[in-house]
Amino acid sequence: MRLIAALGICAVALPAWAQQQPPLPPPSIQVVGVATVSTKPDRATLVYWVTGEGKTADEASANLASKQKTIVDGLLGLLGPDTQLSSGEVSVMEVRSPKCDGPGNYNNRSRLSDGDCALLGFLATLQGTGQTPAVEKAGTAAGLAARLGARDARVSGFVLSNPAEAQRRATAAAIVNARSQAEAMAASAGVRLGPLLSLSDQNGRNELLVTGAFARAGLPPAPPAPPAPVAIPVSPRPLETQARVYAQFAIGR
Description:
Elements (H helix, E strand, L loop, with lengths): L1 H18 L8 E12 L3 E12 L2 H23 L4 E13 L22 E14 L5 H10 L3 E9 L3 H27 L2 E10 L37 E14 L1
Antiparallel strand pairs: 1-7, 2-4, 2-5, 3-4, 6-7
Helix pairs in contact: 2-3
């Protein structure tokens, strides 16, 4: 009788325990959508260095300032007023004979300004940078800057003025890719694809990080372009913008 009673209790308790379990989540398909879009860059970045020499610090600084003005005027004349030029990392250094740095002068120890270490003059240097929408003239601008007194003038790269727009297009394409994958999986499994349940970007958020467009500052009218710079055609390759989204679709009945 005790055994029969115990079995009866178990028979009653088992359905009650089963009813307390959380219901299984509805069936769904989870996919990762990826896409890459190509966009032609619309801004070129220039970098150059200018050097001024002189017997005194003022003479070297004045020589540097004169060269920099000539270069800036020439670049604005060639590239137009929408070009943004800036400068930084200015230094004015004493110059001595290389013999002053010979054996025995370890760790740049202090030296008297006589003999091999006599002061010969001063060297002033400046780094200039710029961004221009005249992408096709960027190579010509580097050559012009060198002709006007810059050293190591170069086109350092190409960028997009509105990367957020390219990111939006990439994300839209990634969402289309995610749905296409989900539809193919549902068709192969013999089920109907239901509505979209959730969607997030590669940062795990439901919105994109929007980058502001490159700000433009007003500039005075540009001076006339210098005569006949050597043309160096530039044709940058498109820049690629990637996006990744995580999507979950319901499975229809």
